[in-house]
Amino acid sequence: MSTRCQIGFYETSTQALSHPSALIYRHCDGYPDTEHGVVATLLPWAQDFAQHRGLADAEYAAARALVALIRAHDALEDYIGYGICGDHALHGDCAYYYRIDPTGITVFDAGDNAWTSLALHAKHPLTPTQEDTEEESHGV
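Given the sequence above, the corresponding structure tokens read:
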């Protein structure tokens, strides 16, 4: 059986978990801790993207992350691999939820697929960029 997940993108680290700016659905291989899992692909991508472009533009970051995921994932997934969640709601069949914001990637176990039942699985912080540090010191 496939391990489905959703990946939410947030403009700031304080944005409410239940209000992602962009949301992607991954049909299979949604595990966080495997060689071809979500973290293995997105953590290096997020670190590079944060340093060169910044993750605060969540919709653009989501689009570029989707490209990275498709490039790294099996080409046979052309028809069921990924989707855009226009309603920004949790799907009832996901095992994991990933929050990506300028500070890093946070992984949650999906539980019963309600925002309030997401349970912390792991945190993967990003190395702050010079721009991030300046924004925090100025209260931006």
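The helical segments are 38-52, 58-72, 130-137. Try to locate this feature in the token string yourself.
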